[in-house]
Design brief:
Largest sheet: none
Order of helices and strands: HHHHHHHHHHH
Distance between the termini: 152 Å
Helix content: over 70%
Length: about 375
């Protein structure tokens, strides 16, 4: 079995060497390779024939052995000498068959060995041609690789160009969009500016109307002044105009002797803007006048209300002085901290009350 394995390896090596030589050999040696292939096929056919003959002989040996064993079993009654002779003959036949097999295997191994040496010699002989073929193949592959690299480079360049053009188009579109947005913003700002201009015109108109109403009030044209005050309140676009319009209306009502309505108008002005001290002071004056026309509990209630309004006026005036007077002392202000000190006849009803004198620090004075 070891010899059969060796023979198989040699035969495989020969076949592989033959296939390699056939692939690498130039076309002018095709006939020689075809002749070698025919020889190899003849050797393979001879090997197969020898193997068939060996298989036949081995079958014959097994059959003879089986027949001998059967003869031994069936002829147990014969003499021991005859049985021994038959066994010896069978062993001799088997030994002869094995010798024949060994001889055939040795011959075949020799033939395959010679064939292997021949093919090896042929392979070394053609080595130079094989190297030249390999060199040519490498040059062709290098050329193909160069062409592929060039094609790939051109493709990448085209892709990069297309990408740059796309990004440039996108940037141009974004620029146009941004410019459009800026233009829209500019138009909106112009629109807002136009609205602001209209608003400024309206403010100027209201200021002029308020100034005109004040002049009518100073000229005792109360009806015209009251009409102007109402128009200021109706057309006002700022809280300042509403506040001043309501105070002007309250002053007109007070000059008409409608102290209760004047007080309500002044309180409405305070609801619009409660920061200025003037609104609280005017409301205190109107409440004092209402108290002068009342008696009993109503008079006391209106008096307390007038004092409370006056206290708020004093507090807001002092806050204003601290924020805006830039060092001026409260007693230097005309209408501020000393609101109730001057000879304002509207406050006569409450001027001599202890609460009034305590509020303005007049205790001990005449």
């Amino acid at each position: 079995m070891g010899k059969l394995f060796t023979i198989s390896i040699l035969a495989g090596f020969c076949i592989v060497s033959l296939a390699l030589a056939q692939q690498l050999q130039p076309t002018t040696d095709e006939k020689r390779l075809e002749s070698i292939e025919r020889r190899v096929r003849d050797v393979e056919a001879e090997l197969r024939a020898n193997r068939n003959r060996l298989d036949t002989q081995i079958d014959s040996i097994w059959k003879v052995s089986e027949a001998s064993i059967e003869a031994i079993k069936t002829s147990s009654s014969q003499s021991t000498e005859a049985a021994r002779i038959s066994s010896v003959n069978a062993a001799a036949a088997a030994s002869a068959a094995m010798s024949t097999i060994q001889t055939v295997i040795t011959v075949v191994a020799g033939v395959l060995t010679l064939l292997a040496f021949f093919l090896g010699w042929l392979g070394f002989r053609e080595l130079g041609r094989v190297q030249e073929l390999v060199k040519q193949l490498m040059e062709k592959e290098i050329d193909k690789a160069g062409k592929r690299i060039e094609e790939k480079s051109n493709t990448l360049i085209e892709q990069g160009r297309a990408r740059i053009e796309g990004e440039a188009s996108a940037l141009v579109a974004e620029g146009k969009k941004a410019i459009g947005g800026e233009l829209a913003n500019a138009q909106a700002q112009l629109k807002d500016l136009a609205g602001t201009n209209e608003k400024l015109k309206k403010v100027i108109e209201i200021d002029d109307l308020l100034w005109l109403g004040t002049k009518f009030f100073d000229l005792y044209q109360i009806s015209y002044s009251l009409e102007a005050a109402d128009k200021v309140v109706q057309g006002a676009i700022t809280n300042r105009h509403v506040f001043q319009g309501r105070l002007l209306r309250a002053a007109c009502l007070k000059r008409q002797g409608k102290y209760g309505e004047a007080l309500e108008a002044a309180k409405e002005a305070l609801r619009d803007d409660e920061r200025p001290a003037q609104g609280w002071y005017n409301s205190a004056c109107y409440a004092s006048l209402v108290a002068a026309s009342k008696t009993g509990e109503e008079r006391d209630a209106m008096t307390r209300q007038a004092l409370e309004l006056l206290r708020n006026a004093k507090e807001r005036s002092e806050n204003y002085v601290r924020r805006n007077a830039l060092g001026r002392k409260p007693e230097q202000m005309d209408l501020g901290v000393r609101l109730g000190v001057g000879p304002d006849p509207d406050l006569d009803i409450i001027r001599e009350l202890p609460e009034f004198r305590a509020l303005f620090g007049l205790n001990g004075t005449t």
